[in-house]
Amino acid sequence: MALKLVSPIESPTFVIENNGEGSIFHQPWWLQASGGDALEYVTTEWDGKTVGSLAFVRRRQFGLRLLNMPPYTHTQGPVLNLPPSKPAKAARNLRRVVRELVEKLPAHDRFHLFLDPDDPSAFPFALAGCMITQDFTFRLPRNQNLATHWDELDQKTRNLVRTAGKALQLKRTAAIEPFLEMCVRERGKQNRHNMIALRRMGEIAAKHGQLMVMMAEDERGRVAASCVLLWDDAVVYYWQSSRDPELNHPGANNLLVWESMKFAAQNGRIFDMDGYATPTSARFGAKFSMQPVVRASVAHMSHIGHLLHALTSRPGSVTE
């Protein structure tokens, strides 16, 4: 997936091309950068050929054995290499390979992942004994007419984008460092980001031509907010964002989201807000009039895991 810089290096224009590799979150180079030395796989073979694999990292929390997606990998499913077949047999093969992968997982109290909205393996995971619930992300369809969509934005959001667009200048880079610096400024001693992993992942994604950091600068050259976009053949992901709490420029984040939507549309890709962590961030995403799209939450639990889930879950809570 080539990346061409066609304007000055301090704020290049990014033109992205297809490479046929599929989801960025399933690429071996991404998973290795994300999980590092903690990355593990289970695989299943038919007739000596690997037909499916599933990556995970182990954690211990309150004595519980957890198997999670690698850090900063927001959706993940099985990587498949099934033999060509007719639809009915293909469905049977998918159910079989998912069942075999789940059976090969190491002993755990909870295994958890979020599937991409287009991932077909939710039903096979359910048949393999997993609990399937709904999580959501916001998406803008491919090739959306943004001139029309602009009128559908929340009015206050449009005003904030206009105001920020007049006061702030956008700059773009393929280097992850400006974003990492922003994280430190925003969070200070409360910074819980794994900065080593973020740097490692940002550098490898940039090397593969699948990352852009977008910054909104004020008239004095200070960065008010920044975001990191990732992309693959189908989707541009709003992967990470941060802002300067001292500047607190109204509309800076709104401007970055809108410009990211434009970037995705101009490159013929779906725009994905990459989920949300709290109801507040969900309401923020909804103001851009993107459709909430289901991505399945998959959990396979021991008896202890089920008990803990029953004690800690509550109706209407946001999935972690």
Keywords:
Aminopeptidase; alpha+beta; 14 strands; 320 residues; two-stranded antiparallel ribbon; 10 helices; 33% helix; disordered N terminus; 12-stranded mixed sheet; 29% strand; disordered C terminus; 2 domains; single chain
Short structural summary:
The protein is α+β, with helices and mostly antiparallel strands and 320 residues long. The chain has helices at 28-35, 87-104, 122-127, 146-150, 155-167, 177-187, 195-207, 252-266, 279-286, 303-312, and strands at 3-5, 14-16, 40-46, 49-61, 64-68, 79-80, 110-114, 131-140, 169-173, 211-217, 223-231, 235-243, 270-272, 291-301.
Q: Tell me the major beta sheet.
A: 12 strands, mixed
Proportion of residues in extended strands: 25-35%
How would you state the average pLDDT, rounded? 88
Instruction: State the secondary-structure class.
Output: alpha+beta
| N-to-C order of helices and strands | EEHEEEEHEHEHHEHHEEEHEHEH
Compute the gyration radius: what is it? Answer: 21 Å
Structural summary, described in words:
- Helices cover about 35% and strands about 30% of the residues.
- It has about 325 residues and is α+β, with helices and mostly antiparallel strands.
- Helix 1 packs antiparallel against helix 7 (about 195-205) and helix 5 (about 155-165) packs across helix 8.
- It is globular, with a radius of gyration of 21 Å.
- It starts with a strand and ends in an 8-residue tail after the last helix.
- The model is unreliable at about 1-10 and about 315-320 (pLDDT under 50).
